[in-house]
């Protein structure tokens, strides 16, 4: 069985991860049990230096939003977070563990060369399949994303990009990030 879902491009500077079409589609698929129990996930955010965000939005809007989306997808609260920064804080690598032992890897980079494209990928590993908006071949493609599970092949086309709404991230997540990143962003 094949199915194609399309979304329209959204150009909002305040689009949070909990409003992102990729997150919303994957959340629905997980709730429907399409790929089994969630095991782990990975967020990748890349952006060229020429359009980089201020520190508050990068850390609290994007990173905080990724952690909230992880909690929502995993149906559990944050247990621990480990963060490493590079390039003056423009590159952040993180490992997030939830109370139910689901782990998320977070890779954020806003120090790419000017010609690089801004992108965000989510890869969700489950017991019976994988959900991702990452292209199967190449760096980026217009084809969209595939959900592949035994007899199901679902194509999903996404055209929006979360930009990190600082105001939408909970104070609890912000406090955890301030603690991990030395008192403030």
* CATH top level class name: Alpha Beta
Tally of helical segments: 3
Count of discrete domains: 1
Q: What's the architecture, going by CATH?
A: 2-Layer Sandwich
CATH superfamily: Dihydrodipicolinate Reductase, domain 2
Beta strand % = 35-45%
Distance between the termini: 47 Å
Shape: globular
Give the number of DSSP strands: 9
**Mean of all residue-level pLDDT scores:** 78
Amount of helix:
10-25%
Order of helical and strand elements: EHEHEEEEEEEH
CATH fold-level label: Dihydrodipicolinate Reductase, domain 2
Parts with pLDDT < 50 across at least 5 consecutive residues: 1-12, 138-146, 155-159
Main sheet overview: 9 strands, mixed
Radius of gyration: 16 Å
Strand order of the largest sheet: 1-9-8-7-6-2-5-4-3
Counting copies of identical and different chains, the oligomeric state is single chain
The SS-based structural class is: alpha+beta
Question: What does the model show?
Answer:
- The chain has 185 residues and is of the alpha+beta class.
- It has one domain (2-180): Dihydrodipicolinate Reductase, domain 2, CATH 3.30.360.10.
- It has 3 helices and 9 strands; from the N terminus they run βαβαβββββββα.
- The chain has helices spanning 21-31, 55-74, 171-180; strands at residues 2-6, 38-48, 78-86, 91-98, 103-112, 119-126, 129-132, 145-149, 152-157.
- Strands 1-9-8-7-6-2-5-4-3 form a 9-stranded mixed beta sheet, with helices on one face.
- It starts with a strand and ends in a 5-residue tail after the last helix.
- Mean pLDDT is 78; it is low at 1-12, 138-146 and 155-159.
